[in-house]
C-alpha cells in the first residue's frame, strides 16, 4: 500500500492528505482498528470528535456511569502484555477507570499520534473515478483514503425529545452523554431527571446520595436488577489474570459474549419451588446472569417470561416502602428483557428517601419546559439542574447524521429512510470500500461490546489485507446479498419476544424512526460463523474489482 502522500487535482486548493484508510471514531473500536491496520503497514488516520480517546467512556461522564459487563471480560483480549499490565479495581469498573484504561492502551500502543482530535466528520463522499472516499470535518479539513471505516458506536447520537420550550430552561442542563468534564455539586440543589432507562438508573442512584431534592420524570417503568458490584480482592486479581484466556474463551461461545449464557432448560422444566430458588440465586449474583444466564425460553415464550417478570415485580414491591409508589415503578407494558435491563445498586431504595419524588408521566404528561423547570398536566416543578437521560438515536443515528454519499451521490440517510440495509452489518450496497464496524444488523449491537468489536475489526482487517494481497481496489456488497442478510436478520429475531417492545433495539424510542430490530438476534457465535463463511468463500456476496 502507498505511504503518506499529499496531492490535489485542483492546484488552487490546499493539498489533501491521502491515506490507505480513514477511521471515524477513537473509541474501543476505532483504537483497535487503527492498531490492527497500522501493524499491517497501512497508512491510517483516525478522526475523533472528542478531545481524547474513549468514545462512549469519553462522553458519558455522568455520576454513576459504569460497566454492566464484568471488567475482566470487557478489556481488549488481543494482547497478553496489556492484559498482564492492567488491574481492574472493581468487578464492574466506573467510567473514570475505563477511560483511564483506554488511555493506557492508546499510550502503550502509541496510537494517539495517528488520531486527529476535536475533528468531527461532517461528510464523506465516494469517488467512483478512483474508488476513494473523501471526508470533511466540521472545520472544513479534508482527507482522502481508499477505505473508510466507521467506528462511531451504537449509542453515540444523543437524543433529546422535542418537548415544547426545550431550550428555554435557564438553569444548568445536560444530556447525560454531554456531561461536563468538571465535577457537578448537587448539594442543596433541586434536580430534575427526565428518563428512567439504564443511564437514568445509574445517575439517579448516585445523585440521590447528595442532592437537595430530586424529581424523576418516568414515562415507562423498567425491570431493574441488582448489579452486585464490589472491589476485586488481591486473591481474585491473581486468579483473574491466571484465567483470562478461559474467560475470553467462555465469552467467545456465549450468545451475547458475556461470561453468562442461557440455561438450555425451559423455565417449565423445573417446578415452581426450584424455579423460585434459581431466580433468588441469580438475583443475588453479579451482572447480567439474571437476564442472560437464565432459562433460554424467557426470551422466546410469553409464559416463561411471565414467571421472571412477576419475580422482579415482587422484588420491587418488597424494596419500595410506599405501595402506590412501588406500583408506579412496576413495569407492566413489556416483557422482561425485551428492553435493555438496567443494572442497579440501590435504585429502588432511592424512592424511600423523603427528598426524592417520582412523577409518573403516564398519569401527568410533560406539557412543556419553562425557564425555571418542567410543567406537567398537573403542576410546575422548579429546578436548579435539569438532566436529560433520554437516550440515543441508536445504531443508525451516528451514521445518518453525517452526509455519507455513495455511488451516484446517494445519501446513506436516504437509502435508510425505511430502515437500515446492510450486508453482515459491515457493508452497505452502493457504498463501496466503506466498512461499518458495529453497524446495523451486526451482533455487536447486542453484545459485551469489546468482544464483538474485536471480531468485527479482525474481519475487516483480514478483508482489507486480502484486497491488498490480491491487488484489488474495490469491494462492494451486492444488493442481493444485502436483501438475503436482511431476511435472515428478520427470521432470527421473529422467534423472540424482542419485537414486542418499544425499545431502542427496535428503533422505537425515536419518533418517526422505522420500527425494526437493529441488531443481529442470533448471537455472536452464529454471527461469527456467518462472517467467517463469507470470507472463506472468497468474500461471497461482495463484488471485488
Ligand atoms: P434509553 O434506555 O433509551 O432510556 C431513555 C429514557 O428516556 C427512557 O426512560 C424513555 O422513556 C425516556 N424518554 C425518552 N423520550 C421521552 C419523552 N419524550 N418524555 C419522557 N421520557 C422520555 O436510554 P439510556 O438510559 O441512555 O440507555 C441507552 C442504552 O445505553 C442502554 O440501553 C444501554 O445499552 C446503554 N447503557 C449502558 C450502560 C452500561 O453498560 N453500564 C449504562 C447506561 C446505558 P420510555 O422508556 O418511555 O421511552
Q: What can be said about the biggest beta sheet?
A: 9 strands, mixed
Termini separation comes to: 16 Å
Low-confidence stretches: 1-9
* Secondary-structure content class: alpha/beta
- Molecules bound to protein: NADP nicotinamide-adenine-dinucleotide phosphate
Query: What would the average pLDDT be, to the nearest integer?
Result: 96
The count of helical stretches stands at 18
**CA-based gyration radius:** 24 Å
Estimate the helix proportion, in percent.
25-40%
The coarse overall form would be globular
Please give the number of β-strands: 21
| Residue share in β-strands | 15-25%
Can you describe what's shown?
- By secondary structure, the chain is of the alpha/beta class.
- It contains 18 helices and 21 strands.
- It has helices spanning 28-39, 56-59, 71-74, 80-85, 95-108, 198-207, 234-242, 244-253, 272-284, 289-292, 302-319, 323-328, 347-350, 397-400, 412-415, 449-469, 479-494, 524-536, and strands at residues 5-7, 16-24, 44-47, 115-116, 121-127, 132-137, 142-150, 172-175, 190-194, 213-218, 225-226, 343-344, 356-360, 366-369, 373-376, 380-382, 385-388, 403-405, 434-436, 475-477, 542-544.
- The strands form 5 sheets. Strands 1, 2, 3, 4, 5, 6, 7, 18 and 19 form a 9-stranded mixed β-sheet that branches. A 5-stranded parallel β-sheet has the order 8-17-9-10-13, with helices on one face. It has a 3-stranded antiparallel β-sheet with strand order 14-15-16, with no helix packed on it.
- Strand 1 (5-7) and strand 2 (16-24) form a beta hairpin.
- The longest helix is centred in the last third of the chain and has 21 residues, at 449-469.
- The chain binds NADP nicotinamide-adenine-dinucleotide phosphate.
- Residues 66-68, 155, 161, 194-200, 202, 217, 219-220, 340, 361, 366, 389-392, 504, 509 line the site of NADP nicotinamide-adenine-dinucleotide phosphate.
Amino acid at each position: 500500500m502507498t505511504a503518506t502522500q499529499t496531492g490535489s487535482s485542483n492546484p488552487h486548493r490546499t493539498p489533501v492528505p491521502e491515506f490507505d484508510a480513514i477511521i471515524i471514531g477513537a473509541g474501543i473500536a476505532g483504537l483497535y482498528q487503527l492498531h490492527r491496520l497500522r501493524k499491517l503497514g497501512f497508512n491510517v488516520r483516525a478522526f475523533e470528535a472528542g478531545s481524547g480517546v474513549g468514545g462512549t467512556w469519553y462522553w458519558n461522564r455522568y455520576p454513576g456511569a459504569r460497566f454492566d459487563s464484568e471488567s475482566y471480560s470487557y478489556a481488549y483480549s488481543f494482547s497478553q502484555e496489556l492484559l498482564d499490565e492492567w488491574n481492574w479495581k472493581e468487578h464492574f469498573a466506573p467510567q473514570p477507570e475505563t477511560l483511564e484504561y483506554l488511555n493506557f492502551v492508546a499510550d502503550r500502543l502509541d496510537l494517539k499520534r495517528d488520531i486527529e482530535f476535536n475533528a468531527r466528520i461532517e461528510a464523506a463522499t465516494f469517488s467512483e473515478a478512483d474508488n476513494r472516499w473523501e471526508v470533511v470535518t466540521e472545520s472544513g479539513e479534508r482527507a482522502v483514503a481508499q477505505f473508510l471505516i466507521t467506528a462511531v458506536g451504537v449509542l453515540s447520537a444523543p437524543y433529546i425529545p422535542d418537548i415544547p420550550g426545550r431550550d428555554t430552561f435557564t438553569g444548568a442542563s445536560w444530556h447525560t452523554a454531554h456531561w461536563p468534564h468538571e465535577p457537578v455539586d448537587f448539594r442543596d440543589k433541586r434536580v430534575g431527571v427526565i428518563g428512567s432507562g439504564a443511564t437514568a438508573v445509574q445517575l439517579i442512584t448516585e445523585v440521590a446520595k447528595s442532592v437537595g431534592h430530586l424529581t424523576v420524570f418516568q414515562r415507562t417503568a423498567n425491570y431493574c436488577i441488582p448489579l452486585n458490584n464490589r472491589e476485586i480482592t488481591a486473591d481474585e486479581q491473581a486468579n483473574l489474570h491466571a484465567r483470562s484466556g478461559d474467560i475470553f474463551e467462555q465469552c467467545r461461545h456465549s450468545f451475547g459474549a458475556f461470561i453468562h449464557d442461557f440455561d438450555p432448560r425451559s423455565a417449565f422444566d423445573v417446578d415452581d419451588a426450584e424455579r423460585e430458588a434459581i431466580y433468588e440465586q441469580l438475583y443475588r449474583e453479579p451482572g447480567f446472569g439474571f437476564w442472560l444466564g437464565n432459562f433460554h425460553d424467557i426470551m422466546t415464550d410469553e409464559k416463561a417470561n411471565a414467571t421472571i417478570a412477576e419475580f422482579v415485580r415482587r422484588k420491587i414491591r418488597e424494596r419500595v416502602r410506599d405501595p402506590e409508589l412501588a406500583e408506579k415503578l412496576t413495569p407492566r407494558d413489556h416483557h422482561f428483557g425485551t428492553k435493555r435491563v438496567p443494572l442497579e445498586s440501590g435504585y429502588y431504595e432511592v424512592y424511600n428517601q423523603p427528598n426524592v419524588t417520582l412523577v409518573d408521566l403516564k398519569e401527568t404528561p410533560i406539557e412543556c419546559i419553562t425557564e425555571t423547570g418542567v410543567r406537567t398536566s398537573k403542576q410546575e416543578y422548579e429546578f436548579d439542574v435539569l438532566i436529560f437521560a433520554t437516550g440515543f438515536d441508536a445504531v443508525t443515528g451516528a451514521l445518518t447524521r453525517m452526509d455519507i454519499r455513495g455511488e451516484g451521490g446517494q445519501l446513506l440517510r436516504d437509502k435508510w429512510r425505511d430502515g437500515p440495509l446492510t450486508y453482515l452489518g459491515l457493508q452497505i450496497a452502493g457504498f463501496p470500500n466503506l466498512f461499518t464496524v458495529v453497524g446495523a444488523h451486526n451482533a455487536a449491537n447486542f453484545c459485551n461490546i469489546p468482544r464483538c468489536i474485536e471480531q468485527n475489526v479482525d474481519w475487516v482487517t483480514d478483508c482489507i489485507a486480502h484486497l491488498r494481497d490480491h491487488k484489488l481496489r474495490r469491494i462492494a456488497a451486492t444488493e442481493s446479498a444485502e436483501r438475503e442478510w436482511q431476511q435472515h436478520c428478520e427470521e432470527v429475531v421473529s422467534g423472540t419476544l424482542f419485537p414486542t417492545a418499544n425499545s431502542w433495539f427496535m428503533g422505537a424510542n425515536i419518533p418517526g424512526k422505522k420500527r425494526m430490530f437493529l441488531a443481529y438476534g442470533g448471537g455472536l457465535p452464529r454471527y461469527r460463523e456467518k462472517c467467517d463463511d463469507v470470507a472463506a468463500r472468497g468474500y461471497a456476496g461482495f463484488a471485488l474489482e
